[in-house]
Structure formats: C-alpha cells, structure tokens
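Researcher: Next entry in the queue.
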Amino acid sequence: MKKIQYFNKIALSAISFVVLLMGATTVEAQVKEAAKPTVSADSAAKVAKPRRGTSQGLPDARLNYAPGKPVKYWSIATAESVMARYPDYREAYWKPWSYVQGYMFYGFEMMYKYTGDKKYLDFIKKYIDNFVDEQGNYHGDKLANLDNIMTGSSIVDLYGYTHDERYKKAAEQFRSVFDTYPRSADGQFWHGNSTPNMWIDGVFMGQMFLIRYGKIIGDTKYCYDEAAKQITVCAKHLQKGQSGLYLHAWTEKPEKTNWADPQTGRSSEVWSEGMGWFALVTAELLAELPKDHPKYTEVLDIYTRLAAGLKRTQDPKTGGWFMIVDKGDQPGNWIDPSGTGMFTYFIQRGIDLGLIKKSEYDQVVAKGYKSLISFGQINDHGLVDVIGGGDGISIKKDYATYVSYKKMTNAKETVGGFLWGTAIVEKPKKQ
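Model: Structure for this entry, 431 residues:
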C-alpha cells in the first residue's frame, strides 16, 4: 500500500512539473507574440501588395470585331473594348482612383453625345458611385495633387446630366481644394502639394475640372479666371522660343531637381503627351471662355501658335507626331500614338470652334487620323489593342531617357488619346 502511495506521489509530481513547464512555455510564447510590432490592416495591405501596373483586363473578355477586317468607328470599338476589359473600372490601373479614368471618361462623354447610347454614361456612373456615397461625400484618394483632382470632372458631369445633388456636394469638395492649394510665386499650381514643381500636364488635370465646374455648377468667374491664369502663366515659363511649342515642366527649386536646368529651372524637352494635355485644356477653355474675357486674346494666341507649331512638326511621312515633337530628325525618336491622338483632337476641335481655318488645317487632321488608326489593331478576342505607346511617363532629364522609354500595348494614356482623337474625327452615330 505504501509503495502504491509512493508511486502516486511521484506521478503527481511529474504531472505538475509538465503542467508548469507547459504554462511557462505558453507565457513565454505570449510574451514573444506581444513583443511583435502590430501592423494595421492598411499597412499589411501596403506591404503585401506591390504597386500594380496597367492591366490588360479580363482574360476572357470578347467582342465581335474581326481581326483584319475594316472597323467603321474606331472610337466605338475602343470604348466598347474598355468596357469589356474592365467591367469594374477600379481594377484597370495602378490604383482605383486615378486621373486616367477621368481622362477616358471625357471620351466616353463624347461617345454619349454623338451616339445617344446611354451605356457610355452608365459606365461613368457605375465607377463614380464607388467613391460618392448617398450623402454626397467623396471617398477616393486624397486630393493632394492635381492628378487626383482630374476625375472629379466626371462627378461634375454626372451632376449636369442627372441633377442628383449628391454629385454637386461631392464636386464642391473638389472645388474647395483650390482655395488653399500651393502655387508658384506667380500663381501656377504646384503639381503636387509637397514640392514647387510645375508640370505642363498638371494644367490639364486641374483646369479641366474648373472649366467644367464653372460651366455646370457655378462660381464661373473664378473658374474661368483661374483656368486662363494657369494656362498663360504655364505658357510663359515653358514656351520654347518662338516655336509655339512647350517644354514639359519647370521648378522654383532647380537645385533640388535632377531634371531641371540649374539656371532656368526648366526641363529639357517638348514631350508630346505632356504638351498634348496642355493643348486639350487650351482648346476646351476657348470653347467656354467669353470672347470679351480679359485673357481670351492671350489664350487664343497660345492656341493658334501651338496649332501652327504642330502643323510644322507633323511627320510628312506618317502624319503623326514624334515623342519629342520638334526632334523628328534625331536618332531613336518615334511616332507617339498618344500625342498624335491628342493633337488630332486639338486641331479638329479648333476647326469645329472656328479658331483656325479648315482650309489650312483639314489635311493636318486627315493625316493625323490616318497615322493614329495605324496603331489600332483588333486582337483574337475581337478587342481593340492600341500599340506603340508609353505608359505612365514622367519628367525625364534628357532626350535619350525620353526616347528610350519602353513601349507597351494598351498603355493607359495612349488608349485615352486614341479615343479622343478618333471620336472627334469620326463623330460616330449609334450603330
């Protein structure tokens, strides 16, 4: 009996020791776990998800266009291809809210006006409603740079078509950003709100919103005055001699910017896509600006000199425009479909508005359009591919860096320029 009791004591002691050891191990693990830095869900997502590029869309997207057969309206086929590829347009580019959607939506609005087909407006609305709630609050990216303001134009547009007050309220949130947005000493908005760098494309990103806001919602005097100021101040800084053409960017702090000339603060080249955006916004302001506005004549002069410069630099062989517009004879330069689409739109828009003579510029448009559609192809899925463009190009330090930029199929800005250029020339009717 004593032996049994003795062995029971030993067993109980052993069990207690194991329990204590397990407890200590658990506590040690808990201490180690507690010592680990905590990561928020947002931070974890940022770590886990690398910056995505421009998507080619759903792999099973299909349309009925046939490779090798004529396309009656490239504009319709392109817009339909965008909708087929990206049923959720938030998934198309490097982030859900970007300037590209707003840029593309101007083309979609043209398609809606020309064809009367509501599917184009519905596609815009479906996207915007992801970012504007029932109370009219905007929930997209911070409005800390001009790029993020661009797609606010589509919110204004939807208010114009629907008169839904929540779009007006959301648009007012964009409008208020300009009241405190940082500027250069002579009044040009910085491209982003952290550095005093002024990009020519930023004029388009910010002022397309103000032009539309002034036309549809109100505060018209401020909006048109500001848009005219941004265009004229930018032109003063970036004009390249008497060519009528404009450089890519300038800065107030050249010592902190590797692309800027240390004396002038200006970048080195006339980049087609950047100047294309400047061309577009200049034409669109003239479409709305009263002829008795104090800046009308100055803006018109910018327009007409730019049109003349583009006529002079158009490639006589292809009808397109080079990536570095005024250096078509330099090695490595290439015809840029993005700039070609923009400039084709710009000149045709001027003809339509009576800013320039059709007799002097209609062949410029015809040759530009012919060059532009040579970059369009129908792939095996019946979708439009736009080839030969550069995706997401920013300021470069020199000519060689610009022209060596890698090209890709369906570069996001190129598809937008292709749509703008084909739409205004074709002015398609509903099929």
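Model: The longest helix spans residues 2-35.
Researcher: Noted, moving on.
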